[in-house]
Amino acid sequence: xxxxxxxxxxxxxxxxxxxxxxxxxxxxxxxxxxxxxxxxxxxxxxxxxxxxxxxxxxxxxxxxxxxxxxxxxxxxxxxxxxxxxxxxxxxxxxxxxxxxxxxxxxxxxxxxxxxxxxxxxxxxxxxxxxxxxxxxxxxxxxxxxxxxxxxxxxxxxxxxxxxxxxxxxxxxxxxxxxxxxxxxxxxxxxxxxxxxxxxxxxxxxxxxxxxxxxxxxxxxxxxxxxxxxxxxxxxxxxxxxxxxxxxxxxxxxxxxxxxxxxxxxxxxxxxxxxxxxxxxxxxxxxxxxxxxxxxxxxxxxxxxxxxxxxxxxxxxxxxxxxxxxxxx
Length: 328
Fold this sequence. Notes:
Elements: H1 3-11, H2 28-32, H3 36-52, H4 60-70, H5 76-93, H6 102-115, H7 127-140, H8 143-157, H9 162-167, E1 173-176, E2 179-184, E3 196-201, H10 209-220, E4 229-231, E5 237-241, H11 244-257, H12 269-281, H13 286-293, H14 298-308, H15 315-327
Antiparallel strand pairs: 1-2, 2-3, 4-5
């Protein structure tokens, strides 16, 4: 049992002898059923509830008080996740779920209606913006620029999540006549580890993820292990991969250097969003976009595409154009 679980167990006011499965006896396999990031978020949510003054197991009345206390202080989506964490804690400890009470669910809906805000989204990286970033990196051509050029192009054309990008190893890459095939042993949408393959073709002189990757391979003098590694201030390539959050910092930094308007709004997710948007604009079939980005939910991709094509077949634009013709 890890330290966090010890903390949660000690903070609970009730003994867990009546639980179907005490925390101390939870198997590694049960832990593995939930991703590390999700489990860590849930643990943080439970700690937040306890530090506020809640006790475990909780009652619907306590949960209601918790919701009222944070209704206008936390994003409603955060409250939804907090309740999900509480629900899972109670269910897996064999207690009744206090979050399922109708009054609790109704209250949460009311909080969404009163305090709900649009979800903050990373700006999609357009193809033209990618060209600007890549041109700048090629011009500088420092070791770190060489790595970042490969990182951005592979990330964009492979529609990679940042967790997938930092985990790529040279052994996962197969060079084929059409380009490269990258094995993704495990990902957010493949927790079972069945493996997914992302195929990336050759490009041209302006954009070519394969050429960028080969250039980085040559400059970094690496042929095995992690691909996108940390680089010291002394320009030494380390064995460790860059941290996932470093990708966000890197994209923002390069975009600011290139004086792009949306620089501060870029993140690693801009690569995936940008890919879906640009692929749709260039006529790629919906199924092909889904397959390349390894998306499970059609609604997610449709949202990206719709956001990028708001002025395509725009009804208001049609009216305005017709008016211009009539005035002529």
